[in-house]
Amino acid sequence: IREVRKHLPDATISTDLIAGFPGETEEDFEETLSLYSEVGYDLAYMFIYSEREGTPAAIHFEDVPRAVKVERLSRLIELSKDVSLERNRKWIGREVEVLIKGPAEETGFVQGHTRGNQVALVKADLSVGLHRVIVGHATPNRLYCAPAGTSLLVSATVQNISSPASRASSSARIAPGLSEVEVPSNASNST
Length: 191
Fold this sequence. Notes:
- This protein is α/β, with parallel strands linked by helices.
- It has helices at 2-7, 26-39, 56-60, 66-89; strands at 14-19, 43-48, 95-103, 109-114, 119-123, 129-138, 142-147, 152-155, 179-182.
- Strands 3-4-5-7-6 form a five-stranded mixed barrel.
- α2 (26-39) packs parallel to α4.
- It is elongated.
């Protein structure tokens, strides 16, 4: 991972994680959290372990109580939000290529994905296809953008954020000399 980050700093690194695998101790889980922080995954698919009859895990290990699985998954999700927000904020002010797939649920936006598979919402009426955009605002799971070559840049001040890494306002991170376009009110640092 260090070599990838060294030679390809913009590479998107993702993972799949299961919380509460049979036999998982709190120490094991803490190592998972530590590794997650160290690697700085951009994206993660996370699940709680669900027993499958007849599998070696079901036969040889004691299952972790559901309440413990849920609590561990919640902690993992909170860490992933903080890490993803930090990684996504590095895109603010930068021009990226987005594959637009169509209208977004948010009025006035179209939705697509960057080459790194980050969800991108663009304040424009763009056709399906590849488009150059400038990132103006980031949440853990989305980049809000405007078409490249315009004087508009998407920005927002998000309030009532519970996680420490999410509390900072992104308004101070807007590229100088650009006008701001409001992000939909339902856009928060937790989505």
